Amino acid sequence: MRTGVPDEDPAAGQPGAGSARGRTRGRLFDRLVRLPPFLWLAAFFLLPFAITLKISLSEPATAIPPYLPLLDWRGGLDGWSAFLEALNFDNYLTLAADPLYRDAALGSLTYAGVASLILVGLGTPLAYALARAPSRWQPLLVALVIVPFWTSFLIRVYAWIAILKPEGLLNLALRHLDLIDAPLTILNTDAAVIVGLVYAYLPFMVLPLYAVMNRLDPTLCEAAADLGASPSRVFWTVTVPLSLPGIAAGAGLCFIPMVGEFVIPDLLGGSETLMLGRVLWTEFFSNRDWPLASAVAVLILAIVIGPVVLFRDSLRAGEGEAP
């Protein structure tokens, strides 16, 4: 017999039924939220890398596109078989045998490594000063660090040409101060490349390090000072060790793009400045050897994989130590 009481859901009275459905919906929502980043990486990293890797296994040709083989989709399995058999590792053997590419790789690592060390030395005290500044001044100081990004990167590099050339602003100032008798040769040297790299990537070093230092517990430094530690000892024994994740993150953010830098060594370095970015540009645009240029691009990626992994681990360590 039906009564006026509505039928009850059999699962409603079971303990945990609602929470189980909630967990299922939560997992589904979590997967949907994670899907767009994976699609983005697949479309704009994995697919271009697969195309670059395929071209690096091809041979140059006077055609459009300037490489062979090309996959004939209408050939079926025979077309795929012929396509795969035509691929080879000759371009990578060329990179290994030709000292030009070895020297370019070593040059890129040297310039990026030296510049990263200088950036750590300059960025650490600068970030510390920002983190210890009065709170009302910190937004303005951080904005001053970001201000260079408001100007075109290319224009800023060209400005350094006007500063470093023999008749430029630097030599003019040094001569007016009677510090030199003849103009210094700085432009088109290794020193000019290092100066350009340090200037261009200093904000990338300061900002992540400032973010870490700004979250440090100030009572730790106060406790060290109460125990008799001098300010310099507090900095080296308390602040710097706790800031290592930020230092690693900043160094990684700078080192990785500097390995493949092209604009700075091309404009500020001399003809003897060898970096992989310049070699890549020459092979791609001057020699029109797309397969060899693609092999250089894959080499750059292989070089920066290590710093990328270290950068990821430092971020995880920083998140784990964050209060």
Automatic annotation (TrEMBL):
Keywords: Cell membrane, Membrane, Transmembrane, Transmembrane helix, Transport. It is found in: Cell membrane. Coiled coil: none annotated. The chain crosses the membrane at residues 32-51, 109-128, 140-163, 191-213, 234-259, 290-311. InterPro entries: MetI-like, MetI-like_sf. Residues 105-311 form the ABC transmembrane type-1 domain. The keyword Cell wall biogenesis/degradation does not apply. CDD domains: TM_PBP2. One of its GO terms (biological process) is transmembrane transport. The keyword Cell membrane applies. One of its GO terms (cellular component) is plasma membrane. Its main location: membrane. Residues 1-10 have a biased composition (Acidic residues). Residues 1-22 are annotated as: Disordered. It is a multi-pass membrane protein. Belongs to the binding-protein-dependent transport system permease family. CysTW subfamily. This is Binding-protein-dependent transport systems inner membrane component.
